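for the recovery benchmark. tokens below, seq after
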């Protein structure tokens, strides 16, 4: 597969970080977004699919620890695209903070299976360059929607490499943590006017993102066909960013992924509450038993292993991250193949018993005895949670 870096600019956005309390308003600015795109490509004889991504180190590592780390990848930089076939678009959105290369185990894997995958560096929310949280609260869904629109528009340009490659009529969003917070809204879950985000954003600038607001309803994207929310932040008290009306606004198929010991987004009163409240979505919930919040990103790089605060952005206390990565690849692929490619054979991998046991209820795709520690819940659209 190939990989390219794009620089996008969303003009005329609210600069909430420079809100003027006396004037009661914020200036506008042109919001930059760096995008990493993976895509099916032609690899010439003698060339290797090898690339190295570099990222700032998260956390507050010791003074002698590296300030950056590298991620080896399997892609060829600026490789020629595959011709004669168009592929669905998957938008990938990281947490706070994070980076566009924080989920490369998933982005590369999906591209290798016939998707154009675009991961966003969310301005003010990137490792080594994070700003006040209000920017992330206001801009996360807006960044996702803008990226969908911008890449869709580029695919219509005769001279753009996305032309003839990207099928902009079939789009999904994968969001981790704050990326999931945005993904729920992008999928139709308008935020509550009484929620934590609405209280945190001054000047009425959050109103257009709330449930029932005409401007929010007008922003729905008909080409957005599916949503994956990995440990999505924001439903848990005291934030409570969605009420029943808001969650009912999700009308596309959804896959939620969470650890039942998530101490950032919460489980029963957080992610599970959002999953159960999305009553108009054909929805599934994959649960990692005894996992905390880090069920979305890459395994820890060697450079992070000498600093617990850096390692804590990547690792899980109970689960092996390589196993989480493989399981996420398995289920996200099956989900997107079903809803973006119409491959109904993938239902057998998703419609499994709540728990795998010996004998006839072994989960498809798993060796016997190896789906231990997982749960899968599913409800049809219109079906309330039991």
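predicted aa per position
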């Amino acid at each position: 597969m190939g990989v390219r870096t794009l620089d996008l600019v969303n003009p005329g956005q609210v600069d909430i970080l420079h809100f003027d309390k006396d004037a009661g308003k914020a200036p506008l600015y042109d919001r930059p977004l760096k995008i990493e795109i993976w895509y099916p490509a032609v690899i010439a004889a003698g060339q290797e699919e090898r690339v190295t991504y570099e990222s700032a180190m998260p956390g507050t590592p010791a003074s002698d620890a590296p300030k950056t780390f590298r991620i080896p990848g399997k892609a060829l930089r600026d490789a020629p695209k595959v011709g004669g076939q168009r592929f669905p678009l998957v938008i990938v959105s990281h947490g706070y903070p994070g980076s566009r290369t924080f989920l490369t185990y998933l982005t590369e894997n999906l591209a290798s299976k016939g998707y154009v995958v675009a991961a966003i560096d969310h301005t003010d929310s990137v490792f080594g360059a994070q700003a006040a949280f209000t920017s992330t609260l206001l801009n996360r869904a807006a960044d996702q929607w803008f990226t969908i629109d911008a890449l869709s528009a580029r695919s219509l340009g005769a001279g753009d490499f996305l032309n003839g490659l990207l099928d902009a009529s079939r789009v999904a969003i994968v969001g981790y943590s704050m990326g999931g917070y945005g993904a729920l809204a992008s999928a139709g879950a308008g935020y509550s006017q009484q929620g934590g985000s609405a209280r945190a954003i001054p000047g009425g600038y959050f109103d257009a993102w709330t449930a029932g607001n005409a401007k929010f309803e007008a922003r729905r994207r008909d080409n957005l066909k599916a949503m994956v929310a990995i440990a999505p932040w924001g439903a848990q008290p005291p934030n409570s960013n969605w009420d029943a009306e808001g969650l009912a606004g999700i009308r596309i198929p959804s896959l939620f992924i969470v650890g039942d010991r998530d101490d950032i987004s919460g489980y029963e009163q957080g992610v599970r509450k959002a999953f159960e409240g999305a009553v108009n979505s054909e929805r599934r919930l994959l649960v990692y038993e005894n996992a905390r919040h880090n069920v979305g990103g890459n395994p820890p790089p060697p450079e992070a292993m000498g600093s617990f605060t850096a390692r804590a952005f990547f690792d899980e206390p109970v689960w092996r991250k390589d196993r989480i990565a493989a399981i996420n690849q398995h289920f996200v692929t099956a989900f997107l193949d079903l809803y973006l490619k119409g491959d109904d054979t993938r239902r057998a991998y998703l419609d499994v018993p709540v728990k795998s046991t010996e004998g006839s209820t072994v989960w498809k795709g798993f060796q016997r005895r190896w789906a231990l520690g997982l749960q899968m819940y599913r409800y049809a659209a219109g079906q309330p949670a039991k």
